[in-house]
Amino acid sequence: MQRLPSGRLPAPPHNADGHTWHHSDEQLLIMIRDGLEAIAPGYETDMPTFADVLSDEEIMDILEYIKSTWPKRERDYQQARSLPSKD
After folding, report:
1. How far apart are CA 77 and CA 54, in angstroms?
2. pLDDT, position 42
3. Cβ–Cβ < 8 Å for 37, 43
4. Which residues in the chain show pLDDT less than 50?
5. Is the pTM of this model over 0.70?
6. 3-state secondary structure string, the chain?
7. Which of 31, 49, 72, 87 could be joined to 35 by an S-S link, Cβ 3.0–4.6 Å?
């Protein structure tokens, strides 16, 4: 992946080639709603936040659609990451 003129990396694809599926539902919701800075302080990105545009439910609906396009292995991995911990 090539850096943008700003020096930042572009958003990765949301298919199996990207890394969206490596994150839990909670992490994805926070990143989309509040920005990547909320998960990774100091990380610079051009991605806008969507808290003022989409509700949490709308964000999760979009994520469900994206997840429906992933192969089974990626869906299973991401689903396991999203399960509540058993502490």
Report:
1. 26
2. 84
3. yes
4. none
5. yes
6. CCCCCCCCCCCCCCCCCCCHHHCCHHHHHHHHHHCHHHCCCCCCCCCCCCCCCCCHHHHHHHHHHHHHCCCHHHHHHHHHHHCCCCC
7. 49
